[in-house]
Amino acid sequence: MDQAEKKRYEERYQAEKQRGEKFFPDIIYKDLVVSFALFLVLILLATFVGVSSEPPADPSDTSYIPRPEWYFLFLFELLKYFPGQLEWVGTTVVPVIAILALLLLPFYDRGPLRHWRKRPIAISVMSLAVAGIVALTIMASITTPPQEEFSVVASVTDEIVIGQDLYGLHCVECHGSEGEGGEIVSVEGLEGVVVDPLNAPDFMYTRTDDTIFNVIDYGQQDLGMQPFGKAYGGELQRSDIGAIVTFMRYTWDDRVEIPQEAAAAGAVPTLGPDDIPSYSLHVEPIIRRTCVSCHRPNRENNEYLMQTYDEVMNSGINAPNVIPGDLNSNVIRMILREEIEAGGPMPPTRALKAEWVEIWIRWVEGGAPEFPLESTDTPEPTPAP
Amino acid sequence: MPEIEHGGGISRRSFVTGVVAFLGSVIASVIGIPAIGYLIAPGLKKHTSDEWVPIGKLEDIPMDIPILSTFTRTSQIGWERSATSFGVYVVRKSADEFDVFSNICTHLSCRVSWKDDQEAFVCPCHNGIFGKDGSIISGPQPRPLDRFEYKVEDGTLLVHLVEG
Amino acid sequence: MAAKWISWLDERLGLTTIYRTILDRKVPKVNWFFTLGSATLFLGVLQGLTGIFLTVYYVPHPEQAYDSINYIMTEVSFGWLIRGIHHWGASLLVITVFLHMLRTFFYGAYKYPREITWVTGVFLLLLTLGMGFTGYLLPWNQRAFWATTVATSITETVPFIGPFINTALRGGTELSTLTLVRFFSAHIWILPALVVAIVGIHLYLVVRIGISHVPAKDE
């Protein structure tokens, strides 16, 4: 741009200004409308979409598929096209050129023309770049595989409940459903080993959460305890282990008070004198805490699985183990600690609590329903006239 | 540029001023009011506890000599489980009569301690001095030392810890 | 009475001058695309406010970062709102900054006499991306951890100084407490300070030179 062109621009701009409007109120008004609309969008996004929860960082979990924030996806995708030896072109040369091109734009594009029709080269280069960025972003979001579903624990209560289930699944075989320990009966290779109780101050007072976490994570090989953490070949995520530790701490450490709703959520509901227990309300929580540890796939259990109502009713070599209305059902006899053809007393280490045995008996007696009956309330007595 | 008159006779300028003020206050209150709740939230949370804490066997508690007993309670504060320490002075007045004082000075919450040579509880911060019965001897404190309820069960002294 | 107060303040603060130079100035008649700049400014201020609120609870430590954010989201009144606005605001901000740049480009507004305004704008675009990059790690969740691991590894491929950039960014060879703290520092102090300074220059130039006009076909 030479002096004449600069002068022409200034004159033109002054003319536009004269024909123009006031910053306040005219421009401010438009600005405000747009900003307010964006504000509404933000509030709606924050309220109805929210921020998706993610599990905590776990440097040992190499199965996680990394993905950057969406506005970096195009850069991420770009790297796919610079294999091996040429990677530095994609990571260094291209971005540096792009940034310099943008930064120095007004110094090499010095022509006086401003309308887009008069600047075909500049407009097409920029349009191509934008199209490229959009295309790369779309391609990246299509080709990135979806992340595995996970559960994120929101509150202490949820964590305790999840921890209780995980404990029931992974720990009960050796440590007992109440953390009472004792002699291991049914775990291959560990028969006869006596396990110290976890539910005692001796254990809970002398170990911090971190210690317990690490024991579950690495196991204690010298004592026969296998590692449970994913990083060491086990099945548990770090968040799972954390939930088990929280469950243990709140349940067995008498210095820590369990939140009431957690105690309620984890408890097996008590029965009224005439209620018929149901699978979903009463029996399933008992099974989850005392049976599934062995009665799940890949355990020695005569193929009797107990993870769903169907399995409880129909699976196993000796099926059916539960016959509605029949107190001679295998399950009942074994819970009552009889030695029968189908097997020995269950659970092998220790009898169930009396009130849980009662729930089992009344459930089978009452026809082993899956869900509670519509109304178990006794009808209101009609008031005397 | 001439002022554009709206139907009602309000100038464009004051119309826009009104809209700016209105939308501005909507944004300010949608952010501002939740922000107040956000900032003071932990202050409004009450963690309550109500329990009997064992202090010691009766036979270990000497007659007429204040002894300090401390215990720790953990609770979830924020996202961390934190330990809070409590200290109580137990003064045995007879076989089954006790004074159980909090060791927190009633002035500004410094910790008092029993001085044998002065026969008094002394607060190091502002020279508050309390007698063996918790009464004020001298100093700026507004009231005698706080007392805990206590009871004796199976030969053990328990004090009633109420918080919140 | 009010008029008296205002004139007293005006005498000392020069409010009329500010009003005349900033608010009551003539500008060319422009279209709605010209609201992108102020929208960016608005979102930026909102990010600053919500960001400051987040630091009331957030702890930049690997053991506590995740839990403290979880606490904000579940226990603190309106914590979900503050974090939600900050989270989504970041994305919207990137969009408005980018569109603002495109508008400037397509109207040729970077040309004389607004070259410096453009250059500061490009720096602000880069700083916005930097804010996004450093902020992404702070929740210390899986997504944050692995995305940052990969992103910092990318710098390793830069010829000659790559490994140096990588360890300098991470504060070591691996992602650690040091990485988290330096990203936090960059996110809440270093980059925002630069942003505020450059936005100051940018706005000064916008007021001084005036906003550009929509070019006609013969320009």
How would you describe the overall organization of this protein?
Chain A is about 50% helix and about 0% strand. Chain A is built from 16 helices and three strands. Chain A has helices spanning about 5-20, 25-50, 75-80, 85-105, 105-110, 120-145, 155-170, 170-175, 200-205, 210-220, 240-250, 260-265, 280-290, 310-315, 330-335, 355-365, and strands at about 20, 180-185, 195. In chain A, α7 runs parallel beside α12 (about 260-265). Chain A is elongated. Chain B has a four-stranded antiparallel β-sheet with strand order 5-6-7-8, with no helix packed on it. Chain B is of the alpha+beta class and about 160 residues long. The model of chain B is unreliable at about 1-5 (pLDDT under 50). Helix content of chain C is about 70%, strand content about 0%. Chain C is built from nine helices and one strand. Chain C starts with a helix and ends in a 10-residue tail after the last helix. At the A-C interface, α1, β1, α2, α4 and α5 of A face β1, α3, α4, α5 and α6 of C. β1 (about 20) of chain A pairs antiparallel with β1 of chain C.
Number of domains of chain B: 2
The span between the termini of chain A is 106 Å
Major sheet: arrangement of strands of chain A: 2-3
Strand content of chain A: under 5%
CATH topology of the largest domain in chain A: Cytochrome Bc1 Complex, Chain D, domain 2
Features:
heterotrimer; A: 385 residues; Helix Hairpins; Cytochrome Bc1 Complex, Chain D, domain 2; two-stranded antiparallel ribbon; 16 helices; 49% helix; 2% strand; elongated; disordered C terminus; C: 219 residues; mainly alpha; Cytochrome Bc1 Complex, Chain C; 9 helices; 72% helix
Summary of the model, kept short:
The complex is a heterotrimer of chains A (385), B (164) and C (219). Chain B has 2 domains: 1-45; 49-163, Rieske [2Fe-2S] iron-sulphur domain (Rieske Iron-sulfur Protein). Chain B contains 1 helix and 10 strands.
